[in-house]
């Protein structure tokens, strides 16, 4: 059973707050208890209100109020209907916040699960305070791809190889990026033959860079591997671009 909507006439559902505050007379309390036996919604509301003793105790500080009894006892002065509604609304808001927090946690977990197969290199803290690069699912996928295209930009000297795999839903891609210095924020952009542009993935290049032959650390000498996906089939793709967030093209790879 759920509370009626759009009615201005008090109902048993609206009596739950008054019952919790103990302001019903014997006849009213008996009638509500009979209703409560078959109403799951009121039972849930009453359960929530039963944990609000601190808020009820705060009523004692209101002008003209006396001590506030525990739930189930009688009040010497009945709170106004507006106050009762405020208490019930507060319970509803608390429950909504709990639901939102649960939703965000579930969404974050789902995002991690989905991103896992297309993750870039795994980075963890090293003993010297730097970053330690390990193999990644994206790198493993790249090695199995037979359809690859490569290019090196004459001006930036950045090198890129894009591995492609046809899927029923479009194209899975993995980028191998070398000779790029940070700090930068970059994107892998697919340019279709019809002129449409789709960002397949984005990432940050740390200070030490990726795939630098003369890098001073093992991490800086290793390439970046990062996955992406798009709805276009391989034969619909013209080329790929690695661009910075400021719009500078670092390298273009023809499909």
TrEMBL record:
Give the source species: Streptomyces pyxinicus
Per the database record, which ranges form the Putative zinc-finger domain? 16-43
Keyword Transmembrane helix among record annotations: yes
Protein name, per record: Zf-HC2 domain-containing protein
Cleavable signal peptide: none
UniProt entry keywords in alphabetical sequence: Membrane, Transcription, Transcription regulation, Transmembrane, Transmembrane helix
In terms of Gene3D superfamilies, this protein maps to: Anti-sigma factor, zinc-finger domain
Q: Does the keyword Transcription regulation apply?
A: yes
The residue ranges crossing the membrane are: 103-123
């Amino acid at each position: 059973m759920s509370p009626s909507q759009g009615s201005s006439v008090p109902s048993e559902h609206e009596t739950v707050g008054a019952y919790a505050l103990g302001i019903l007379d014997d006849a009213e309390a008996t009638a509500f208890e009979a209703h409560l036996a078959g109403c799951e919604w009121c039972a849930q509301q009453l359960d929530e209100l039963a944990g609000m003793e601190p808020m009820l105790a705060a009523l004692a500080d209101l002008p003209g109020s006396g001590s506030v009894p525990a739930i189930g006892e009688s009040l010497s002065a009945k709170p106004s209907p507006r106050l009762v509604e405020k208490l019930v609304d507060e319970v509803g808001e608390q429950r909504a916040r709990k639901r939102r927090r649960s939703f965000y946690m579930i969404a974050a977990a789902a995002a991690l699960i989905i991103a896992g197969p297309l993750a870039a290199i795994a980075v963890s803290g090293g003993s010297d305070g730097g970053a330690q690069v390990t193999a990644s699912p994206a790198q493993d996928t790249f090695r199995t791809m037979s359809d690859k295209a490569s290019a090196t930009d004459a001006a930036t000297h950045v090198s890129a190889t894009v591995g492609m795999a046809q899927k029923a839903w479009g194209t899975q891609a993995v980028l191998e990026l070398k000779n790029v210095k940070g700090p930068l924020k970059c994107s892998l952009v697919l340019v279709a033959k019809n002129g449409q542009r789709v960002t397949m993935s984005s990432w940050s290049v740390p200070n030490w860079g990726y795939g630098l032959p003369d890098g001073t650390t093992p991490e800086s000498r290793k390439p970046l591997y990062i996955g992406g996906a798009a709805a276009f089939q391989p034969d619909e793709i013209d080329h790929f671009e690695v661009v910075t967030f400021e719009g500078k093209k670092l390298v273009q790879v023809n499909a």
